[in-house]
Amino acid sequence: MDKFFAFITARGGSKGLPRKNCLPLAGKPLIAHTIEAARGCSAVSRTFVTTEDDEIKAISRTFGAEIIDRPAALAADRSTSESVIEHALEALESSAAVPEHFILLQPTSPLRTSGHLAQCISQHVKSGADATISVCEWEHHPYLAFTPPADAPGTLLPLFAGIGFTGPRQLLPKAYRPNGAIYILRTKAFLLHKTFLPPSFSFFLMDARSSIDIDSSFELELCESLLSGKK
Questions:
Q1: Which domains does the chain have, with CATH numbers?
Q2: Which of 176, 186, 202, 221: CA 20 to 30 A from 93?
């Protein structure tokens, strides 16, 4: 089977929830949940954390991840995940360790499990696509969304002009959104297209619970409650 390396991207300067990657969740740092999910999946050959932060490095090593030292310039607010992964692949190139496929895992998806990874990898291999991304059903259908027009303050217009849907929700077409939990890419395709969504991609559907993305203390408390209830 082709090699799959996991890259966990974690910088120290998160703004919405400061130091969130190191905050405790169900008895261990937030990032540890993602490291354990990757290391617990037999299809993942190696697990790396790319970071500039010393505390994150120490935690990651404790939970068994390898470290890629990220330059501070790639840990700024406007740094892209694409540029971070490019750097990670370049760092491995010198040791001839570049994998056929890589998996981008964000530490803010702690309810994504080893089982999800195994299923997503299996689906990716069967699909033959250049990428497979995890998605979930859109909580609020985009056909029901509105947007404020620039030329008419205080008013709202349908986001999708001409639709104006007012029927039962059951009649709406299915709508999915990327949940940020799993991105699997063929390395050559990523280096060619410089995106996590190349022309050829498939999707892996996850449930709403497993799709929770921690961006504030509310989501952190919600995950704590869910994980406590699981026990």
A1: 4-138+175-230 (3.90.550.10), 139-174 (no CATH)
A2: 202
